[in-house]
Amino acid sequence: MRHSLIGLLFLLVISLPSGNGLFGHDGIQIRTCTALKGRCFFGCRVGWTWVSFCHNILSCCVKMLKNNPPQVDEY
C-alpha cells in the first residue's frame, strides 16, 4: 500500500507545470501573470526571468529577449 501511494505521488509531481514537465507544456496562464506578459511555473525555465509569485507557490516568469544563455537552444 505504501509503495502505491509513493508511486501515485511521484506521478502527480512529475505532471505538475514545471519548466520541463512530462508532457512539455508552456506553463499556466493566470490573469495577474499574463498581465505582465508571463507564464506561471514551479520554478522558471532556462531563458526565463522570475517576475513575481502566482498565488502561493507558483512563479511568474517572463521570457528573456536579450542575453539568453546557450542552454536555451537545447530545449
UniProtKB/TrEMBL annotation:
GO molecular function terms attached to this record: lipopolysaccharide binding
GO BP terms in the entry: antibacterial innate immune response; antifungal innate immune response
Protein name per Swiss-Prot or TrEMBL: Beta-defensin 136
Top-rank lineage group of the source organism: Eukaryota
Signal peptide: 1-21
Alphabetical keyword list: Signal
